[in-house]
């Protein structure tokens, strides 16, 4: 009898392939596809397996590698993913802070804003890809329109906290990408072989050959 020892998703029971994004299930054990998890924060835990606290962002999934497989993530891939994760955390923290400010003077209006869309990994991935595609044209209004086009959002109208959060996401991601490009160029330049000086034939100079170091001493 042939047994299938491949790891399967706890939610859909499909085999998890190398390269797919996944989450660990710290409660029941096992692994689940990122797209099969959430989006409710109650279904996630922090890096230590503890329930998320109110306002905590949903952790980023990781890339599944089966036992014995060879990772194919390049240094550039890791840098790209890190930049997205940092930008995501910055955006969510700013959104959370802006909502707290709004709640001081207008709590009813603050409660009408649903921030969970900005904490869904597939939404963040689409936002990052679009920012990297259009660069400085990725204003909050343009990003909101893209979210509507991709059916992540019903309206492109943004509250002020959402506008600030999207602006932070785009700005942080572009700055990190620019910094990564600069560091890569600096590293490659340092590794590049240095050009060796070409010796000039002595007959092309004002010097002349001598037999010893003191042969020209006292000559005019």
Itemize the secondary structure elements and their pairings:
Elements: E1 21-24, E2 31-33, E3 62-63, H1 75-105, H2 107-112, H3 121-134, H4 140-149, H5 160-191
Tell me briefly what this model is.
The chain contains five helices and three strands. It is mostly helical. The protein has a three-stranded antiparallel sheet with strand order 2-1-3, with no helix packed on it.
What does this entry look like structurally?
With 220 residues, the protein is mainly alpha-helical. Helix content is 42%, strand content 4%. The protein is built from five helices and three strands. It has a three-stranded antiparallel β-sheet, with no helix packed on it. A hairpin with a 6-residue loop joins strand 1 (21-24) and strand 2 (31-33). The longest helix has 32 residues, at 160-191. The protein is elongated, with a radius of gyration of 28 Å. The termini are far apart.
Distance between the termini: 101 Å
Biggest sheet character: 3 strands, antiparallel
| Number of beta-strand segments | 3
Order of helices and strands: EEEHHHHH
Helix coverage percent of residues? 40-55%
Which sequence of strands runs across the widest sheet? 2-1-3
**Uncertain spans, ≥5 residues at pLDDT below 50?**
none
Label the overall shape: elongated
């Amino acid at each position: 009898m042939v047994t299938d020892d491949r790891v399967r998703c706890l939610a859909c029971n499909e085999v998890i392939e190398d390269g797919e994004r996944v989450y660990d299930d710290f409660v029941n054990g096992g692994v689940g596809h990122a797209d099969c998890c959430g989006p409710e924060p109650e279904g996630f835990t922090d890096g230590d397996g503890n329930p998320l606290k109110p306002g905590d962002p949903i952790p980023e999934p990781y890339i599944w590698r089966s036992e014995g497989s060879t990772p194919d993530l390049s240094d550039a891939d890791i840098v790209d993913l890190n930049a997205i994760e940092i930008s995501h955390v910055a955006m969510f923290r700013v959104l959370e802070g802006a909502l707290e400010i709004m709640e001081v003077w207008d709590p009813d209006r603050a409660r009408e804003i649903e921030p969970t869309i900005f904490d869904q990994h597939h939404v963040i991935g689409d936002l990052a890809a679009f920012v990297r595609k259009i660069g400085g044209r990725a204003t909050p209004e343009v990003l909101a329109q893209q979210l509507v086009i991709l059916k992540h959002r019903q309206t492109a109208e943004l509250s002020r906290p959402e506008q600030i959060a999207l602006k932070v996401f785009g700005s942080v991601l572009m700055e990190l990408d620019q910094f990564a490009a600069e560091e890569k160029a600096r590293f490659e330049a340092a590794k590049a072989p240095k050009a060796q000086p070409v010796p000039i034939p002595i007959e092309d100079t004002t010097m002349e050959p001598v037999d010893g170091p003191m042969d020209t001493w006292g000559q005019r």
